[in-house]
Design a protein that fits this description.
CATH architecture of the domain at 8-97 and 164-227: 3-Layer(aba) Sandwich
Strand order of the largest sheet: 6-7-8-3-9
Distance between the termini: 40 Å
Bound molecules: adenosine-5'-diphosphate, magnesium ion
Oligomer: single chain
CATH class of the domain at 8-97 and 164-227: Alpha Beta
Length: 238
């Protein structure tokens, strides 16, 4: 299932988690509109719901209320199996930790993602071509623990784009890197995004990384409420 277009739209999103201390409001967001092929950086205080939002955009979870639409597909209405299929084919994800499989080489890690998305082996040498383009070809037979943190994160970007996803979602992808490596990773990500025409939603705390996106969106802290009287309140943030 390929989406018709790759805009990202969210409307009236609310995510609530029931906990023993009452209901946690993890996210409230009226409206998010990202054009197909656009890049946006999401910024906001810790705990304001940025990772929760990316999880909804990825189809990893469904909102308590509201809708998420990718192109013409309302992914928040898809049942789990259809959502998983949609995500495998159309989404590329990068996290703060690279999450590479330690016993697989660089090319195997990237190739595995291609197999998951396409259910087919890399018949056309696409992995090799991508690693070449991203300047990672010399590393292709190394294991993750034979790479620097910055190199590992660039491999994670390669893994996120090898299947030419409609949307790339990145959750603090440079959060554990020094500035020079952060710069290289974001270069790799934005070059790849443009090359495949994907839409990019990037969560970051770093203003210099955020400025690389076409647009910056500030997310405000959701109002936290809880039933229990000793619940934590954040009056300065509501
Ligand atoms: P951010 O990524 O902006 O730091 P998160 O999206 O991780 O924020 O979390 C938003 C809020 O939701 C936080 O208050 C967090 O503690 C809460 N939260 C996230 N996941 C859960 C969960 N599974 N159960 C209860 N609360 C959660
Ligand atoms: Mg987070």
């Amino acid at each position: 299932m390929k989406p018709a277009g790759n805009s990202v739209t969210a409307r009236d999103l609310v995510v609530e988690y029931p906990t023993p201390r009452g209901t946690v409001h993890a996210l409230s967001l009226d409206r998010l509109e990202v054009d197909g092929g656009e890049s946006v950086a999401i910024m906001g205080p810790s705990g304001c719901g940025k990772s929760t939002l990316l999880g909804l955009l990825a189809g990893l979870a469904r909102p308590t209320t509201g809708t998420v639409t990718i192109g013409a597909t309302v992914i928040s209405s898809l049942q789990e199996k259809a959502r998983i299929r949609f995500r495998r084919q159309n989404m590329g994800m990068v996290y703060q930790a690279d999450n590479l499989l330690p016993h697989l080489s660089v090319e195997e890690n990237v190739g595995l993602q291609l197999g998951i998305a396409r259910r087919a082996a890399d018949a056309d040498g696409e992995v090799e071509a991508l690693l070449q383009r991203l300047g990672l070809a010399a590393l292709r037979t190394r294991l993750p623990d034979q790479l620097s943190g910055g190199q590992r994160q660039r491999v994670a970007v390669a893994r996120a784009v090898i299947h030419r996803p409609a949307v790339i979602l990145a959750d603090e992808p440079t959060g554990s890197l020094d500035p020079a490596n952060a710069e290289r990773v974001i270069d790799t990500m934005i070059d790849s995004q443009r090359a495949i025409g994907a839409t990019l939603v990037l969560v970051t705390h770093d203003p210099s990384i955020a400025r690389r996106a076409d647009r910056i969106i500030e997310l405000e802290r959701a109002i936290l409420t809880a039933a229990a009287p000793d619940a934590v309140a954040v009056p300065d943030a509501v």
